[in-house]
Amino acid sequence: MRMTPIHRPARGFTLIELLVAVAVMALLSFMAWRGLEGMSRTERLTSQRADDLLALQAGLGQWAADLQALHETGEVPALDFDGRTLRLTRRDPLAPALAANGTTTASTGLQVVAWGLQQGQWRRWHTAHLTTREALNQAWAQAQRWGERPLEADALHQVNVARADSWQLFYYRGDAWTNPLSSDAAAASLASAAAGTAGVPSPFGGAGLGTARQLARLPDGVRLVLTLSPGQTLVGDVVRDWARPTLGGGKS
How far apart are CA 39 and CA 43, in angstroms? Predict the structure, then answer.
């Protein structure tokens, strides 16, 4: 007796099996996407923090360079802090260097620089090359106005250094750190200035105040205490000390 083979139909995937396969593939795709998103977010944060750190380092370097280049003109103070804005006169880095004997020529240029905290940003503002008495006095007044009421046009002359909540300054005089606005510090500054000598011409005309008297007006050191806002690479207080290069009495 001859047996006829039985042909069974080919069996495919059931609907449930297809749904399970699709669900597994979707889960794997979601996990891969989350991993890539996490890597991308980490890269962005790392890059942003690196930029913040470099900007802060550059700003503190510029802060020290401004103080290092302080120059008394006999027209306006070399350094002035009103509790809100620090104004200073400095030698223009693009101007000719001072002569070996400390004198300057009429072509020597200066800059007026201001530092302040505005809208949560620690900022630096500067003027262009100044060569006349009128331009210097006008720039000094502009720096004060910038500290009190910055204008839209000031954006061309200012740089945001770091996001900060507050900042403080201290002057080193008489072997102690003091508040620049204290009466004792002001009295010490006037007494030091009165003990100086005159005779060096001012690059902006007039008799000038003399090298010894100019340097005596400046504090021996300036301490910056900058409180950075949260959410940055560095948070909390950043302290930066600057010492005047020419200190008397064997100080260092």
Answer: 6
How big, in percent rounded to 5, are the helix, strand and coil portions of the chain? 40, 25, 40
For all residues of the chain together, what is the average pLDDT? 78
Find out whether 64 and 115 touch, Cβ atoms under 8 Å. no
Contact between 214 and 196 (Cβ < 8 Å): yes
Structure tokens at 196: 């100086």
> Could you tell me if 123 and 158 are in contact, meaning their C-beta atoms sit under 8 angstroms apart?
yes
pLDDT in tens, 161-189: 999 999 999 999 888 999 998 755 455 45
Residues 242, 64 contacting (CB under 8 angstroms): yes
Give the whole-angstrom CA distance, residue 113 versus residue 110: 10
Read off the pTM: 0.70
- Polymer length in residues for the chain: 252
Which residue, 29, 26, 48, is CA-closest to 233? Answer: 48
Task: Report domain extents, the chain.
Answer: 45-94+107-243
Alpha-carbon span 120 to 165, nearest angstrom: 6
Separation in Å, CA 23 to CA 11, 27, 28, 29, 30: 22, 6, 9, 10, 10
Contact between 119 and 147 under an 8 Å Cβ cutoff? The reply is no
Contacts of 193 (CB under 8 A, 6+ apart): 209, 213, 216, 217
